Automatic annotation (TrEMBL):
Homodimer. This is ribonuclease Z. Keywords: Calcium, Endonuclease, Hydrolase, Magnesium, Manganese, Metal-binding, Mitochondrion, Nuclease, Transit peptide, tRNA processing, Zinc. Its EC number is 3.1.26.11. SUPFAM superfamilies: Metallo-hydrolase/oxidoreductase. It comes from Brassica napus (Rape).
Amino acid sequence: MLTSMPHHNLTLLGFSPLKSSSFALFLRPFSLYPILASSPRRPRAAGYRRSDPSPRFPPRRKWSSFEEESRQRKGMSSSSDSFEFNKRRAEGKDKIDQPKKSLKRNTRTLNPTNTIAYVQILGTGMDTQDTSPSVLLFFDKQRFIFNAGEGLQRFCTEHKIKLSKVDHIFLSRVCSETAGGLPGLLLTLAGIGEDGLSVNVWGPSDLKYLVDAMRSFIPRAAMVHTRSFGPSDSTPQIGGSSKAKEDPFVLVNDEVVKISAILLEPSPSEEPGNKSGETSVVYVCELPEINGKFDPAKAMALGLRAGPKYGKLQSGQSVKSDFKDITVHPSDVMGPSVPGPVVLLVDCPAESHAEELLSAPSMKSYYSADGDKFVNCIIHLSPASVTNSATYQSWMKRFHSAQHILAGHETKNMEFPILKASSRITARLNYLCPQFFPAPGFWSPQHATDLTNPDSSSKCFGSSLGENVSAENLLKFTLRPHVNLGLDRSCIPSQLTSSRVIDELLSEIPEISSKTEEVKRLWNGPHNNKMMIEEPWLNESTVPSCLENIRRDDMEIVLLGTGSSQPSRYRNVSAVYIDLFSRGSILLDCGEGTLGQLKRRYGLEGADEAVRNLKCIWISHIHADHHTGLARILARRRELLKGGAHEPVIVVGPRPLKNFLDAYQRLEDLDMEFLDCRNTTSTSWASLETTSPEKTTSNGSAEGSLFSKGSPMLSIYKRPSSPVTDNASALPYLKKLKRVLGEMGLEDLISFPVVHCPQAFGVVLKAAERKNMAGDKIPGWKMVYSGDTRPCPQMVEASKGATVLIHEATFEDALVEEAVAKNHSTTKEAIDVGSSAGVYRIILTHFSQRYPKIPVIDESHMHNTCIGFDMMSINMADLHVLPKIVPYFKNLFRNVVVDDEDGEGEEESDDGLMMSVNKVSSFFRN
Ligand SMILES: [Zn+2]
Ligand SMILES: [Zn+2]
């Protein structure tokens, strides 16, 4: 569970010190040999991971034989069943082992005469428009970030912005668009260093709803610095009436900056269910005036001796002259002072907010005509639909010479990916094998025309205003030093196009073009002609009957996120999109940034279509890497379907997820219906068939041997915090799910318990049977997804005869002890589960972020297996080819280490801190 903190006893388990681990990723030139070793028993290179003891687990070991060995071994893992796992973690008791922490706030010595200060656009979501961009306010010793949408962490990792140095986060609204990245961010900060960090989070009063919701999976300590301001509907603020409406809320006021908030609260909208972003905030950042320079020549001329009086004058006091009978005032000896720059951040999500903005009395002192303050820069987070309005433009004109930066969503940046590292990999994979790696949405042909004419969409409106620019990723406005006041474009990254990526690839790996030709030929001819003679795994390459003449619009698996723990540069966190084409779609897990990944895969319109098409979302367990993107997807779906006839989407998830969603719906209507995973087990489905409702309140006794009476896992079900669900009340939803599945051509969606944390599940999807041309019945395919789990009998049982098994493979084979401690699987274990169950194809996913581009695998075991990559799209009609693509990854990734060490700017290795963040947090959040 996420509330747990890093284990302090991990050293016992081969946990390596942070610093050296972080370097290991980039300083191990031999890592590629084990990645694609061709010998099945090739030993690991000595010293490869210095904390690893020599492999105790022979490569061909079966999970079922863990027991004997584990009994001889000491450790925190228990093994009273036929397989090994960490019982305390599975039961959610591991967090009790850890000392309670009170997370520190950074304290810094401030530097009022900051030599450098600027605001910078962090273009999070600027390309995919799935989230609001963030803005960084940077000082030598203090950092502030405005808005924390999904993907902020991933963005900061890629662009080397150290989140550990951020002191305050301000939300311009409280909704998934502006705060979707906050849960992940708080968890990451809590995992930094020995004690963890926290950050001050500010937002309008709605923030308390978000905090309430996050309590279900974020340690309280990580949120103690969360503060809301402004009137709240339930408890009117004390002094709220006496505080004049024209006074902004002053949130920060130190030697360096004063940050205040002006609330925009339009009258409640008529539209039902439209709760999000009702209140928005204008943030005002004012830097202090800098005193002019002291001129000793002037002081001397006025008859002053060098000494303490100089200091007094500089601090603003008048003094008596030493040699003349006069009083010397500071203005006599000081140069002219430099006014402190003022920056405004404005977020008007709708025109009604703009009207509030126009009439806000607290804005008055900032207008050029009647104000005493001069605004240098205004960053508009408002969407183009609002900023283009006459109301808004007339308001903008009140600031005569302010620099306006329009940072609301615009189409301009769409074709240029903000996360270059991952788009580069996607483009390379696309070149190698477009069948499994389709062109990303950015670079699809429909956008090609825009590329040829970059000016076509970059025009700024209202040329009469003169000082408007469109925001670009990493665009800066310098505030200090004063001589540089103004826009700074030097950090804006060069634009990456797919043709440039391919040119790079071809010059780096010239033979790749012939490999691409070979890959094409994999699709030609009968599926298994040559293999039949040469290869011993004949049975596994015989195409199962369910795939007979299968159509391309039957089912496609799209891996949207294949990394564990937290979003990284190359792999986003878990999400699998099951595309059933005209019949709808299902999401299995939904980590942070899933909406953005859909946009990267399908383009802006395509992703909206995909979201509209969702009929069911299934969540495996309540770890942040599996569900924090859910609210954003649901909110987007509600927005897209608003007004039209539609049904709420069905969310099937573990019980704690319901707590989160219930609390969250006070903030944003999510337009969904919840069904507990335990109500979709085979037992529950069976009870649906029985006619008598009294019989339907069965418990987990029939969930298989793992949860049978007296088994160690049963206690998890019996814990007070997880009451056995009442099937009777879930019955209407279960019936509805049955109908929805039927409409999608599915026969079954069955959740089954797995061994990971309390209430962790895997899922089976089964297609209904169909008829072939001759009228014969063809069985439906069966797809199984493991969620996060140790290999366990339940997993094998559920996977029996599956057409595809998507199984987590967090760790490489040598790290089996870590896999046991964290209740995850190694590559080999995942493959063994599939093999024991007679699965036709295995897809590995959920790789530890210690394998940034490609995980460590043993190629010789991959004859029916493939490793997953973000955006990989596996059509059922291509399933027979799937494992044959694996050897080609060797060609594509042969230069991985070189890339990381001497690639261009964005290919440099991550800084030590970010990597150590990865290391720590992965221990308590996946
Ligand atoms: Zn996970
Ligand atoms: Zn997990």
